[in-house]
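Hi R.,

Here's the chain you asked about this morning:
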Amino acid sequence: MSTIISVENLGKKYLLRHQAGQQPYVALRDVLSDGMRNLGRKLLGRSNLTAYGTEQEEFWALRDVSFEVKQGDRIGIIGRNGAGKSTLLKILSRITEPTTGRVRIKGRVASLLEVGTGFHPELTGRENIYLNGAILGMHRTEIKKRFDEIVDFAEIEKFLDTPVKRYSSGMYVRLAFAVAAHLEPEILVVDEVLAVGDVQFQKKCLGKMEDVSAREGRTVLFVSHNMAAVGQLCVRGLWLERGTIKSHGTVSEVVDEYLSDGDTAAGVRIWSDSESAPGNERISLLVVRVRDHLDKVSTQLDMEHSFSVELEYQIHAPYAQLRTGFWIYTVEGILVFVAGDNEDPAWRGVKRPAGHYLSRCRIPAMLLNSGRYSVTVAADIQGSELLFLQHNVLSFQVKQTGPTVLDGAQRSPGIVRPSLEWRVERVGEKER
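And the predicted structure, written out as tokens:
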């Protein structure tokens, strides 16, 4: 496969301004005069402190980033908030110019970075489809040929001739992704914006990206905090940390490294700030833990012993039909199982009053095979309302220490490794 994107020593620098002192009032004439003084100081190279008390600090969002992307690659770009993922995509989409280094791109790039990017709010959905196609360099006949597919995929036919300023964020995403995926760009760049859409549409989008890459040979760059989605779609992974590449390789290897790094490897995730805690005005998630068979918080578990997953949460107002629970995923993004605390008979169908709660689920020994797994947590009103959904809260490693592997050395294939009852009998000649 030929190289379609080449990134060499890429860097992006921003200047951050900080107020050095408290000034209750600054007149316009002072701003203008101090600005001229500051310009003179910059030319003389004297100081980064302006006359009216503003300091400038250099911040490198990206520094010395180099990698290549082959045609047809599906690359998942992962990392914590502020790692430089969105900055990298903006540079690749030619929205932002790099400070250092260079990027070579062969082919048209379609980007889905923010809700509404590239749409004119006063134009209708129909008009914006043609506008986006024109921006991508497509002729009207090409756009018209794919128009019905775009509308069907986005499922907004009823609102096609409505100005997009009246669309919900979910409708924006539906139309934007449909346009980007169907107007035949060589490179499709998708940021975390897909999280705005509903779960079914997210699955639909992941399937479409996999299809256009595998069947049509297009390249996909996908940024997400949902490791399950990254593992399902992507073949290669790129982990950014503080503006530099920390790991680059197969998606399973990179995701495994990322999940085992830092806070997610501690076996507990705590939300100390109520504003950042998942939930709403009626419920807040407080803590998620993994405990081993000795009841110790740990991420290193033995497959021959049981372990537990705990969810602590605060109910601020009474809830009927409340359910909290979790999903267990492999690092490849394969869902292993889902568990909900509505299986506790004492609370099944019972209205939960306000208060502090702890839901604990015990996972039996000899269920999960050796490997790394991630935990996604959620709460909902059964069959009606999702209260919160938090992906990749933490991860844990299941290890094999006893004589359970088939040949005593290698990992047994499969996700589960149940201890099953066998009986071997020698059948006599007559019985045969």
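The helical segments are 28-44, 85-92, 125-135, 140-154, 169-182, 199-214, 227-233, 251-259.

Let me know if you need anything else.
M.
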